[in-house]
C-alpha cells in the first residue's frame, strides 16, 4: 500500500463527505416540499434557498464516482455493476429531481407545478435512502467472486441493517435540511422547522443507537477497528445531542446546521475507517476488494494528485464565494436585502 | 426465461440510446451558451436593453436544455461501471482519470456559475454578470474536451502500456492522451457542431415566431435581430464543421481505414494509378449487401474521392473493406482469434456520413439566403412565409446531423470498444442480469420520451409567451407569487 493509494482512499471519503454535507441539506429541503411547505409561496422559498447551489452540490457525487473510477477502477466496476438496480433508482431519481427544479416554474397550471414539486420531495428521499442502503450493504459483506463480480440476491441487498442505514441517512439529511431552513428562510417555514426538529432529534438518536447495534451484528468493524469504531459512534451520538440542545434549547441556527452536517460526515468517516484497507467486503474474505488490488497505477495516481492539488483550491474558492453571494435570508414573500 | 437477446445487445442498445439522447442536449446547451454569451456581451457594450432581453429570453431555453443535458450526463458517469465493468477494470487507469478530471475542472465551474448567472441579474452590474455566462459556457466546452479525450482514447489508443500482471492497460503518458491526433480532429469538430446546433435552433425558433407576428409588432425587431446573431454563429459553425470534418475523414484513412472505406462505400480497393483518369471516383449512392459485404449498386462521381481523400484532383488509393478484412484478420488473429469479422455496418456509415455532408451544405446555403433576406432595409424575410417555414423546420436538422456523426464514429469502431485493444464483447458486465438491463432500458426509454416531449412543449410555451412575458404570468392567477429574486429579473 503506497502513500498515494491511501491519499486517494481518503480523498474519495472526503468527496463523499462533502457530498453528504452539501447535498444532504438539498435533499432535506427537497423533502420539505411535501413535509413542511403549506402553500406555493413556501415551496418557492424552499426552491430559492437551494436554487443557485444544488447543481454544484451534486457535482460532489459525480466527482466521487469519477475519482473512484480513476483511482480504484476495480472498486468502481464491482460497486456499480454489483448494485445495479439500486444505483439505477438513484440515477433515475437524480434525473427526475434535476429536471423538476427547472420544469416546475414553466408549468401553465398550479397542478402542473405541484406535480414536479411532489417529484422533488419523493426523489429527495429516495436518493439518500438508496445511497444509505448501498453503503451499509457494501460494508456488511456481499457475495463477490474471485474476479470481483458481485452477484447477490434480494436479501443480500435488503437487510434490517441496510434498511436502517437507508432510513438513517434520509433522516439525517432531513434534519440537516430543517436546520438549513432555520438558517436561510424566514417566516412560518422556519417556525415549523423548529417544531419538527423538536421531535425528530430524539427519533434520530434512537435510530443511531439501533444502527450502532446492527453495525455490531452485520459488520466486523467492532472487531477489526474496535477503538476507532466505538469512538466515532460516540462522536456521532454526541454531535447529535449537542445539535439537539443548541437547536431546541438555545434556539441557535448556525451551529446546529454545522453539527447536523457533521453527523453525515462522521457516518462517512465511520464507514471508511471500518473499511480500511478494504474497499468492498466480501462474504469470502479471500475475495474482499482492498486498496491494493483495486488501485490504479502509481503514474495515474500521481497525475491525478497534481490535478487535484491544482484544481481543488480554485474549485472550493468559487463554490464558497457562491454560497457567500447567496447568504441572505429568504422570507416567503421576498428576499431580504 | 428464454433469452431472446443477450446482455451484450441490451448493454449496447442502452449505450446508444443514452448517449444519443444526451447528445441532443449537449451541443444545444453549449452552443446556446455561446449565443447567449454573445447577446449579453452586446448588451454590455451597446447598453441596448433589447440585447439583455435576448440573453434572458434565449437563456430560458438554454437553462432547460442545460438541465436535461446535466441529468442525462449523470447516466454516462455511472453506466461504464454498471454495464461495462470489464471495460472499466481494463482501461479505468486511463479512462477513469479523464472522467474524474472532467468533473473536477469543468462540472464544478459550469454548475456553480450557471447558478450565479441565473439568480443574480439584478445583483451584479452587467459587466460582471456577463462573466458568469462566459465561464459557464467555457466550462461546458472544456468538459467536452475531457470526455472527447476519453472517447479519442477508445478510437485511437495512445500513451498506454499493457500490464500483464494486472491484466489491464495502464497510463504511461498523460501528455500523449491530450495530444492524441484523434482528439484534435474530434474536439474542434464537436465544438463547431455546437455552434451549428444553437445557431439554427435560435434562427428556426425565431422563424416560427415571425410566422405568428404581425408586421408592425414590436417583437419583430427582437426576433429579426436574434436571427442575425444566431445565423452568424451558425454559419461560422457550418464552415468550421465542413473544414474540421474534412480533416477528420482524411485522418481516418490511417487511423481507422475500415471506418473510412465503409463511409465511402469502397469494397474493392481503388488504386488511382491503375485507372484511366488517374483519380478515385466518389460514390454518391451505394448499396452494400450486409451478408456478402459487396456493393451491389452505386452511382459514382469521378475525381471527388481523390479531392477528399488525397486533397488533390487525382491520385491516392483507398483500401477496400474486403482487403481490410483480410489484413485485420491477419493482424489480430493471434491476439483476438474470437473476433468473427471486422466489417462495420457499411450502409449506415455510408448514409450517415452523407447526411452530415449534405445537411451541412444545405444549412450553409439556407443560412446565407436567410441573412440576405433579413437585411435591415427589407421586409423580405417576413413576407416570404414559405421561407420562414423552411428556416423553422431546419431547427431539427443539426440534431439529425449530430446523431449521424456519432453513429459514424461509434459504429465505425466495431468490433472494438478500444480500437485494436479490447473487443466490445469482452467489455460488458458479466454479473448484470438480462432482467435488470431490460428494466433499465424500458424505463430509460420512457423517461427520454417524456423528457424530450416536455422539452419541446416547454420550449414552444416559452416561445409563445415571447420575450416580454412577465415571470409572474407563468403562475396560476389564483395563487400569485410575489416577486422573488427570480421574478425580479423581469
From TrEMBL, chain A:
<dbReference type="GO" id="GO:0070069">
    <property type="term" value="C:cytochrome complex"/>
</dbReference>
<dbReference type="GO" id="GO:0009055">
    <property type="term" value="F:electron transfer activity"/>
</dbReference>
<keyword id="KW-0813">Transport</keyword>
<protein>
    <submittedName>
        <fullName>Cytochrome D ubiquinol oxidase subunit II</fullName>
    </submittedName>
</protein>
<feature type="transmembrane region" description="Helical">
    <location>
        <begin position="255"/>
        <end position="279"/>
    </location>
</feature>
<dbReference type="Pfam" id="PF02322">
    <property type="entry name" value="Cyt_bd_oxida_II"/>
</dbReference>
<keyword id="KW-1133">Transmembrane helix</keyword>
<keyword id="KW-1003">Cell membrane</keyword>
<feature type="transmembrane region" description="Helical">
    <location>
        <begin position="158"/>
        <end position="178"/>
    </location>
</feature>
<feature type="transmembrane region" description="Helical">
    <location>
        <begin position="225"/>
        <end position="248"/>
    </location>
</feature>
<comment type="similarity">
    <text>Belongs to the cytochrome ubiquinol oxidase subunit 2 family.</text>
</comment>
<keyword id="KW-0408">Iron</keyword>
<feature type="transmembrane region" description="Helical">
    <location>
        <begin position="119"/>
        <end position="138"/>
    </location>
</feature>
<keyword id="KW-0812">Transmembrane</keyword>
<dbReference type="GO" id="GO:0005886">
    <property type="term" value="C:plasma membrane"/>
</dbReference>
<feature type="transmembrane region" description="Helical">
    <location>
        <begin position="82"/>
        <end position="99"/>
    </location>
</feature>
<keyword id="KW-0249">Electron transport</keyword>
<feature type="transmembrane region" description="Helical">
    <location>
        <begin position="6"/>
        <end position="35"/>
    </location>
</feature>
<dbReference type="InterPro" id="IPR003317">
    <property type="entry name" value="Cyt-d_oxidase_su2"/>
</dbReference>
<feature type="transmembrane region" description="Helical">
    <location>
        <begin position="299"/>
        <end position="324"/>
    </location>
</feature>
<dbReference type="GO" id="GO:0046872">
    <property type="term" value="F:metal ion binding"/>
</dbReference>
<keyword id="KW-0479">Metal-binding</keyword>
UniProtKB/TrEMBL annotation, chain B:
<feature type="transmembrane region" description="Helical">
    <location>
        <begin position="229"/>
        <end position="245"/>
    </location>
</feature>
<dbReference type="InterPro" id="IPR002585">
    <property type="entry name" value="Cyt-d_ubiquinol_oxidase_su_1"/>
</dbReference>
<feature type="transmembrane region" description="Helical">
    <location>
        <begin position="95"/>
        <end position="119"/>
    </location>
</feature>
<dbReference type="GO" id="GO:0020037">
    <property type="term" value="F:heme binding"/>
</dbReference>
<dbReference type="GO" id="GO:0070069">
    <property type="term" value="C:cytochrome complex"/>
</dbReference>
<feature type="region of interest" description="Disordered">
    <location>
        <begin position="469"/>
        <end position="490"/>
    </location>
</feature>
<feature type="transmembrane region" description="Helical">
    <location>
        <begin position="386"/>
        <end position="408"/>
    </location>
</feature>
<feature type="transmembrane region" description="Helical">
    <location>
        <begin position="187"/>
        <end position="208"/>
    </location>
</feature>
<feature type="transmembrane region" description="Helical">
    <location>
        <begin position="351"/>
        <end position="374"/>
    </location>
</feature>
<dbReference type="GO" id="GO:0019646">
    <property type="term" value="P:aerobic electron transport chain"/>
</dbReference>
<keyword id="KW-0479">Metal-binding</keyword>
<dbReference type="GO" id="GO:0009055">
    <property type="term" value="F:electron transfer activity"/>
</dbReference>
<dbReference type="GO" id="GO:0005886">
    <property type="term" value="C:plasma membrane"/>
</dbReference>
<dbReference type="Pfam" id="PF01654">
    <property type="entry name" value="Cyt_bd_oxida_I"/>
</dbReference>
<keyword id="KW-0560">Oxidoreductase</keyword>
<keyword id="KW-1133">Transmembrane helix</keyword>
<keyword id="KW-1003">Cell membrane</keyword>
<keyword id="KW-0249">Electron transport</keyword>
<keyword id="KW-0812">Transmembrane</keyword>
<feature type="transmembrane region" description="Helical">
    <location>
        <begin position="131"/>
        <end position="149"/>
    </location>
</feature>
<feature type="transmembrane region" description="Helical">
    <location>
        <begin position="57"/>
        <end position="75"/>
    </location>
</feature>
<keyword id="KW-0349">Heme</keyword>
Amino acid at each position: 500500500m503506497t502513500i498515494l493509494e491511501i491519499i486517494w482512499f481518503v480523498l474519495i471519503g472526503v468527496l463523499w463527505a462533502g457530498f453528504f454535507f452539501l447535498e444532504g441539506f438539498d435533499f432535506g429541503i427537497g423533502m420539505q416540499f411535501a413535509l413542511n411547505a403549506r402553500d406555493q409561496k413556501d415551496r418557492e422559498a424552499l426552491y430559492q434557498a437551494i436554487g443557485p447551489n444544488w447543481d454544484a452540490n451534486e457535482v460532489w457525487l459525480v466527482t466521487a464516482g469519477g475519482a473512484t473510477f480513476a483511482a480504484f477502477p476495480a472498486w468502481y466496476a464491482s460497486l456499480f455493476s454489483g448494485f445495479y438496480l439500486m444505483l439505477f433508482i438513484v440515477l433515475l431519481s437524480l434525473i427526475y429531481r434535476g429536471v423538476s427544479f427547472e420544469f416546475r416554474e414553466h408549468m401553465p397550471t398550479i397542478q402542473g407545478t405541484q406535480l414536479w414539486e411532489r417529484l422533488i420531495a419523493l426523489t429527495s428521499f429516495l436518493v439518500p435512502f438508496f445511497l444509505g442502503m448501498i453503503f451499509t450493504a457494501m460494508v456488511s459483506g456481499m457475495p463477490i467472486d474471485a474476479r470481483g463480480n458481485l452477484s447477490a440476491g434480494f436479501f443480500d441487498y435488503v437487510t434490517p441493517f441496510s434498511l436502517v442505514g437507508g432510513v438513517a441517512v434520509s433522516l439525517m439529511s432531513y434534519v440537516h435540511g430543517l436546520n438549513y431552513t432555520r438558517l436561510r428562510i424566514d417566516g412560518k417555514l422556519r417556525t415549523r422547522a423548529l417544531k419538527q426538529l423538536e421531535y425528530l432529534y430524539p427519533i434520530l438518536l434512537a435510530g443511531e443507537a439501533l444502527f450502532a447495534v446492527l453495525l455490531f451484528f452485520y459488520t466486523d468493524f467492532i472487531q477489526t477497528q474496535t477503538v476507532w469504531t466505538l469512538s466515532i459512534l460516540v462522536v456521532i451520538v454526541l454531535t447529535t445531542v449537542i445539535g439537539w440542545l443548541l437547536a431546541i434549547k438555545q434556539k441557535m441556527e448556525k451551529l446546529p446546521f454545522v453539527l447536523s452536517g457533521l453527523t453525515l460526515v462522521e457516518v462517512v468517516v465511520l464507514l471508511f475507517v471500518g473499511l480500511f484497507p478494504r474497499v468492498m467486503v466480501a462474504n469470502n474474505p479471500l475475495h474482499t476488494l482492498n486498496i491494493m488490488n483495486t488501485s490504479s497505477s502509481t503514474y495515474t495516481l500521481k497525475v491525478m494528485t497534481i490535478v487535484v492539488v491544482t484544481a481543488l483550491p480554485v474549485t472550493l474558492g468559487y463554490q464558497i464565494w457562491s454560497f457567500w453571494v447567496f447568504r441572505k435570508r429568504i422570507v416567503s414573500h421576498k428576499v431580504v436585502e | 426465461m428464454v433469452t431472446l437477446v443477450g446482455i451484450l445487445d441490451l448493454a449496447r442498445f442502452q449505450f446508444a440510446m443514452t448517449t444519443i439522447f444526451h447528445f441532443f442536449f449537449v451541443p444545444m446547451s453549449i452552443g446556446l451558451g455561446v449565443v447567449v454569451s454573445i447577446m449579453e456581451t452586446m448588451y454590455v457594450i451597446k447598453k441596448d436593453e433589447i440585447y439583455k432581453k435576448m440573453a434572458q429570453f434565449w437563456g430560458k431555453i438554454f437553462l432547460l436544455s442545460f438541465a436535461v443535458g446535466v441529468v442525462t450526463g449523470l447516466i454516462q458517469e455511472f453506466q461504464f461501471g454498471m454495464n461495462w465493468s470489464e471495460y472499466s477494470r481494463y482501461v479505468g487507469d486511463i479512462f477513469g482519470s479523464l472522467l474524474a478530471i472532467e468533473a473536477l475542472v469543468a462540472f464544478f465551474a459550469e454548475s456553480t456559475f450557471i447558478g450565479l448567472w441565473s439568480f443574480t441579474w439584478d445583483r451584479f452590474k452587467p459587466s460582471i454578470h456577463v462573466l458568469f455566462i462566459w465561464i459557464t459556457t467555457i466550462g461546458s466546452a472544456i468538459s467536452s474536451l475531457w470526455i472527447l479525450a476519453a472517447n479519442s482514447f477508445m478510437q485511437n489508443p495512445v500513451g498506454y502500456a499493457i500490464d500483464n500482471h494486472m491484466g489491464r492497460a495502464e497510463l504511461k503518458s498523460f501528455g500523449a492522451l491530450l495530444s492524441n491526433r484523434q482528439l484534435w480532429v474530434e474536439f474542434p469538430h464537436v465544438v463547431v457542431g455546437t455552434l451549428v446546433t444553437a445557431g439554427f435552433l435560435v434562427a428556426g425558433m425565431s422563424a416560427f415566431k415571425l410566422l405568428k407576428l404581425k408586421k408592425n409588432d414590436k417583437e419583430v425587431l427582437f426576433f429579426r435581430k436574434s436571427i442575425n446573431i444566431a445565423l452568424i454563429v451558425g454559419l461560422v459553425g457550418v464552415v468550421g464543421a465542413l473544414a474540421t470534418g474534412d480533416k477528420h475523414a482524411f485522418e481516418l484513412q490511417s487511423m481507422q481505414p475500415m471506418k473510412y472505406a465503409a463511409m465511402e462505400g469502397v469494397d474493392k480497393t481503388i488504386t488511382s494509378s491503375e485507372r484511366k483518369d488517374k483519380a478515385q471516383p466518389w460514390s454518391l449512392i451505394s448499396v452494400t449487401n450486409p451478408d456478402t459485404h459487396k456493393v451491389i449498386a452505386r452511382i459514382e462521381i469521378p475525381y471527388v474521392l481523390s479531392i477528399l481523400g488525397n486533397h488533390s484532383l487525382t491520385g491516392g488509393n483507398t483500401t477496400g473493406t474486403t482487403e481490410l478484412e483480410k489484413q485485420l484478420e491477419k493482424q489480430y488473429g493471434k491476439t483476438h482469434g474470437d473476433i468473427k469479422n471486422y466489417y462495420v455496418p457499411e450502409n449506415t456509415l455510408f448514409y450517415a456520413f452523407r447526411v452530415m455532408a449534405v445537411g451541412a451544405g444545405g444549412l450553409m446555403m439556407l443560412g446565407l439566403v436567410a441573412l440576405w433576406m433579413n437585411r435591415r432595409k427589407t421586409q423580405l424575410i417576413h413576407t416570404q412565409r414559405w421561407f420562414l417555414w423552411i428556416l423553422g423546420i431546419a431547427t431539427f436538422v443539426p440534431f439529425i446531423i449530430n446523431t449521424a456523426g456519432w453513429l459514424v464514429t461509434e459504429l465505425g469502431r466495431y468490433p472494438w470498444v478500444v480500437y485494436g485493444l479490447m473487443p466490445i464483447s469482452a467489455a460488458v458486465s458479466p454479473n448484470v442480469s438480462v432482467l435488470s438491463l431490460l428494466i433499465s432500458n424500458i424505463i430509460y426509454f420512457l423517461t427520454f420520451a417524456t423528457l424530450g416531449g416536455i422539452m419541446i412543449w416547454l420550449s414552444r410555451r416559452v416561445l409563445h409567451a415571447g420575450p416580454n412575458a412577465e415571470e409572474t404570468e407563468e403562475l396560476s392567477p389564483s395563487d400569485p407569487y410575489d416577486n422573488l429574486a427570480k421574478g425580479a429579473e423581469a
